[in-house]
Specification:
Elements (H helix, E strand, L loop, with lengths): L7 E2 L2 E2 L20 E3 L8 E3 L7 E7 L6 E5 L3 E4 L9 E4 L6 E9 L5 E3 L2 E5 L5 E5 L2 E4 L15 H12 L10 H8 L42 E5 L20 E5 H7 L12 E2 L5 E4 L9 E4 L5 H14 L11 H4 L12 H13 L4 H14 L4 H4 L2 H7 L16 E3 L6 E5 L6 E6 L4 E5 L5 E5 L6 E8 L4 E8 L1
Helix pairs in contact: 1-9, 4-6
């Protein structure tokens, strides 16, 4: 068993699975800047014009009489909040002569290339300290023309996607242990377990690849060993039947005990849990919709979108088989026994809500690319989230449309007090949201080319959404 006990002193994390190394602080009364860890792990590949998953570190100093200025080099953005207010500079003000602060870091590359940015911490009385990392900006890795035949909406589009992603390379079940080391690894090299991870904080335990792998015993408590979780339980499709049994788009390395508690129950929403995992996953009566009120498992919010897109993939990839699957009782609660829509109304509504509220992350994009290299097919709902809307959303707004987004221009980006928004077609409304989902601005009507005033926005990363009667789209906006 590999259980890490975290030594916490004055809110400073001595170890985190999101971080590479740490520095134990035995004497915290010295007048020098202490950064924990001293270096951030490689952010790895980040799609250009997207935001990476978060890393964090802690800053500590005593006997300080002046503020500390923190500056992050491009393409890094820093914040005191895990989900919003990211900027390139921060000012940390001492309280009672001390700074004891967690800083969150994300990468937002606007161009391809390898970057070696440094975060500099400067004071007038205690000198400075630097924290380095690495970021690689890459363009989207979707093969050119991969979705060229996905041109319809509704059931027809679902079938078109099925024809694109079917017939993938079938992996061996034992090989998944090795593949997880690439597809499900944290920045610091540990198992990225969605049933124990707590984004923005230290999880209760971590797993080491190989060392903590399930060998057939253990798993009676959380934090013991990890195994292979079929997010769509294999009893739902008849057992260890390939290719479903080894399709990595729905299989994750997770805590064996949590996996066993979740059992074969469907995912759902749980208001009054009978059991709660250490990272907040809940087991109890389902409250999503009113069709199914039996037992369900609700994962934490940060991974609901991941699992929703896995389930939408499964019902699309295996469209030609789902009517013949030998459903278990639990599977019957979600499946509707038809190729379309594929799931019962309560499940479709919940999965689409999860899909919308938890957008595609860096982790999902890289996982999609890596599994494509192994299996030869992709999850279309990770590549183009709007495809889910075109199938299970309000399809009337997409009739006679074959593009996935409106081709708009936002410049400059990063922007200062304003930016110019231009579009080759009519836009009825423009909205700006923080990365935590808070609406910051709404503007209508929108001219073909118009300057948008954002002087009221703080420095950080925002989401610009734009709409007309046929389609909607979004872009990331960085405000200096």
């Amino acid at each position: 068993m590999k259980t890490i006990l975290f030594a916490i002193v004055c809110s400073i994390a001595i170890f985190s699975p999101h971080l590479l190394q740490s520095k134990h602080i035995d004497d915290r009364s010295v007048n020098q800047i202490v950064l924990t860890p001293e270096q951030l792990p490689d952010f790895r590949e980040v799609y250009i014009h997207t935001v990476s998953d978060v890393q964090f570190y802690d800053v500590y100093i005593t006997n300080l009489t002046t503020a500390m200025n923190v500056v992050a080099e491009y393409p890094l953005m820093i914040s005191l909040d895990c989900y919003s207010d990211f900027a390139q500079e921060l000012t940390l003000v001492p309280v009672a002569g001390a700074i004891d602060q967690r800083v969150f870091v994300r990468a937002h590359p606007g161009s391809s290339g390898e970057f070696h940015p440094v975060i500099t911490h400067t004071t007038t009385s205690a000198g400075s300290a630097e924290l380095a990392t690495q970021v690689t900006g890459i363009p989207p890795q979707i093969p050119q023309g991969y979705y060229s035949t996905a041109t319809s909406v509704g059931h027809e589009l679902k079938t078109q996607l099925h024809n694109i992603i079917k017939g993938h390379n079938t992996l061996s079940y034992n090989s998944l242990w090795t593949h997880f080391r690439q597809t499900d690894v944290t920045f610091s090299g540990f198992v990225w377990d969605i049933y124990s991870d707590i984004p923005c904080s230290e999880p209760p335990y971590i797993f080491v690849f190989g060392e903590d792998q399930d060998t057939g015993s253990g798993g009676n408590i959380e934090g013991d060993v990890y195994n292979r979780e079929h997010s769509m339980p294999r009893s739902w499709f008849g057992g260890a039947v390939n290719p479903m049994n080894t399709d990595m788009y729905h299989i994750y390395p997770v805590d064996k005990h949590v996996n066993a508690v979740r059992d074969n129950f469907p995912f759902g929403m749980v208001a009054n849990p009978t059991w709660t995992s250490l990272n907040g996953g809940k087991l109890g009566a389902n409250t999503a919709g009113d069709q199914y009120t039996g037992t369900a498992f609700e994962p934490i919010d940060e991974y609901k979108g991941d699992l929703a897109r896995a389930f939408l993939y499964m019902i699309t990839r295996y469209e030609d088989q789902i009517e013949d699957w030998t459903y278990s009782a639990e599977g019957n609660t979600m499946f509707d026994h038809n190729t379309f829509p594929g799931y019962e109304p309560w499940a479709i509504e919940m999965l689409m809500e999860w899909h919308r509220n938890d957008p595609v992350s860096q982790r999902e994009r890289l996982r999609n690319d890596l599994i494509y290299e192994l299996q030869g097919n992709r999850n279309p709902f990770v590549d183009h989230p709007v495809l889910a809307e075109k199938i299970w959303g309000d399809t009337t707004v997409f009739v006679n449309r074959t593009d996935y987004t409106i081709d708009v221009t936002i410049y400059p980006n990063p922007a200062g007090k304003n930016f110019v928004f231009s579009s080759p077609e009519r836009i009825d409304r423009l909205e700006i949201f923080s990365t935590s989902g808070k609406q910051m601005l709404i503007h209508f009507p929108v001219k073909a080319s118009e300057t948008i005033d954002i002087s009221a926005l703080h420095s950080g990363v925002y989401i610009v959404r734009f709409f007309n009667s046929n389609v909607s789209g979004s872009r990331l906006l960085m405000v200096r």
